[in-house]
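ARCHIVE CARD
CATEGORY: sequence design from structure
SOURCE FIELD: tokenized fold
FIELD CONTENT:
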């Protein structure tokens, strides 16, 4: 077991050593980081605007017929665990980094546009979340459509589709987080179900816009290292 871990760490180190010496790769990563940061800025202003402009809540066929469950841990800590897992995958296989960053930036920007269009208030009965949590930096209460909890893990499943077990983990995470936000009445059902269709389109947009990064992601079997 220790030998396998040591060998895996050595392979990851060698892959990182090779790629991080390539100026084009470093530039692409920098562009991805800057794009994602700008996307978060857009998300902040869009979420703030949507939350200030909320009207009233509406009925929902699923939420009307279910009670509110305490899903605080899964809603807040769940995504932190998931994105920690994704971060490890990116470090282990750095060729994934540019396309992943840029596709997440595109996802965030498009979602920011969506949440500025319709200003429904959160559902009348919902889980009250603690205010001192990290997700407060990215969620504002009125930014409902579409669910990032559902869409972002599904995007990762599409990005890492060639890897069976990673794909399965991401798909299960997407479904679980979708169920969590419904059980907590934190999103309307349309926010969750529409997320899959919109995210699928965003993925194909990312493939089109970031073709070089996508080709690097799909490099088979792996980038050769010494």
């Amino acid at each position: 077991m220790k030998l396998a871990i040591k060998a895996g760490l050595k392979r990851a180190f060698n892959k990182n050593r090779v790629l991080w010496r390539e100026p084009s790769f470093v530039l692409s990563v920098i562009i991805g980081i800057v794009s994602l940061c700008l996307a978060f800025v857009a998300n902040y202003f869009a979420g703030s605007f949507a939350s200030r402009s909320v009207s009233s809540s509406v009925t929902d066929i699923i939420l009307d017929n279910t009670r509110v469950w305490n899903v605080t841990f899964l809603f807040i800590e769940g995504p932190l665990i998931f994105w920690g897992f994704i971060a490890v995958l990116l470090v282990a296989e750095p060729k994934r980094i540019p396309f992943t960053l840029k596709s997440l930036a595109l996802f965030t920007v498009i979602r920011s546009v969506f949440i500025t269009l319709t200003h429904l208030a959160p559902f009348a009965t919902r889980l009250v979340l603690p205010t001192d949590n990290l997700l407060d930096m990215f969620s504002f209460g009125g930014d409902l459509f579409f669910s990032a909890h559902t869409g972002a893990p599904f995007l990762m499943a599409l990005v890492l589709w060639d890897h069976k077990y990673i794909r399965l983990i991401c798909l299960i995470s997407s479904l679980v987080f979708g169920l969590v936000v419904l059980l907590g009445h934190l999103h309307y059902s349309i926010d969750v179900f529409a997320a899959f269709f919109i995210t699928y389109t965003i993925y194909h947009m990312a493939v089109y816009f970031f073709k070089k990064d996508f080709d690097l992601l799909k490099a088979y079997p792996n980038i050769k290292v010494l």
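CARD ANNOTATION: The mean pLDDT is 90. The chain has one domain: 2-217.
SHELF: design records, drawer C
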